[in-house]
Amino acid sequence: MFKPIKKYLSNLGEVPKRIQHRHHIFWSDTNAERIRNTPMRAQDSMEKWKDVPYWQRKLSNKYNAREFAIKHGCKVADLYWKGSDVQQINFETLPPYYVIRPTVGHSSNLVFVMEYGLNLFNEKRYTAEEIRSILSAEVAKNPDLEFLIEEFLENEDGEHAILDDYKLLCFNGKIASCHAIKRFSPSKGQGNFYDEHWNKMEALHLKYPVVDGQKPPKCWDEIISQAKILSKAYGIFVRLDFYASSKGAVFGEFTPTPGMGRHFSSYGKKLMISYWDTYCKGLV
User: Fold this and answer.
1) Residue 8 above 70 pLDDT?
2) What is the pLDDT, as a whole number, of residue 62?
């Protein structure tokens, strides 16, 4: 009886209100999709990146996000292919391990984490033609959609496996917390919350079960350093996702409206508002 009430209460308050307001501001604009899908390059000046209101929308395109991370000295997964004409993908030239993800999307939808034809995210096998068919159907629905085929990063032990997530809540260069998640699938995992010095914090979010005994990744200092740089460049609240890999900290993506503000704990909401009002006061 108490869990539904707790879940309901977690969706109320100032944090969901602010994040849902941002979502409305960002995406109700008739130019929003054009802005998000404007192709950008790491070499472009910051003036060009910021040439529209709420320019951070460009970074909701995962290819642009890669380029922005590269611009600021962050590592990203190697890119094997990018485009919308998926019939041009030559699967025979790809390594046995690779990742496919859309330039626009959330919750790991349409993500293939491939190991010799097996998608580790759903434990299903796919032929090249089956993947092409699925991707083609999505492009038909949204002509602006592209797909990225990227390196399947090894973990810090040099193994190919679903990587743990490090999700950092950031406010203009300041880090409120990191949710370190041991990932089992796109929707399942367990983890805990830490400050930038890897001191355990009270749970900020209620989505995943809490687990103790986690150790910081070898590249923890690099994750923190890069998160601060990207957050300062982004300028307003954002969640930054990183991975710990055999080549160090690797940037994942920007998430401007995490979970639409839902499922934060009472403690998490208070901490979020404190950081928001201190470091991003008056900003969307």
Assistant:
1) no
2) 98
